[in-house]
Amino acid sequence: MASEISGRIAQAFNERGYSTTPIEFETSNTGNEVAYFEAEVEGGQVDVFVTSANSAQMAKKTFDANVLADKTNGMAIMNDWENNGNTVYVIRNNMANMNFVEVLDTKQSSAIHIVDQLPEQLDPVLKVLDAVSYPVQ
Predict the structure, then answer these.
(1) Where is 126: in which H helix or E strand?
(2) Which of 109, 96, 98, 28 is nearest to 63 (CA)?
(3) Which of 36, 56, 92, 99 has its CA 20 to 30 A from that of 47?
(4) Closest residue by Cα to residue 85 from 66, 113, 110
(5) Of 100, 87, 3, 95, whose CA–CA distance to 51 is shortest?
């Protein structure tokens, strides 16, 4: 599942004129599949991690751990959307001038973690997520 989701996200970046690196895959000792790639967006790197878990509960634990790590580092949720089993949080790191986008997809038992390096990358990232049917406004 990570390969399918990461492929759709990479394709959406490419269709908008952004280049991406080849997708790398890894399977954890718990059986979760993780896909990773980078996109070149607005003059900077965006990191995309997709974790496909064995269950929706495990995907939620991964999502919650990512959000907790962001909050523990003093970051706040700036926007959040939910729709049809999907949750999207935009978390702002003011000190590093970065955004973290956390996505939970319970239908596909997956968690997506996106890190941008520049404020102007957030809008293109959200448009990509919208294009692959994740709720953003």
Answers:
(1) helix 122-131
(2) 109
(3) 56
(4) 110
(5) 3
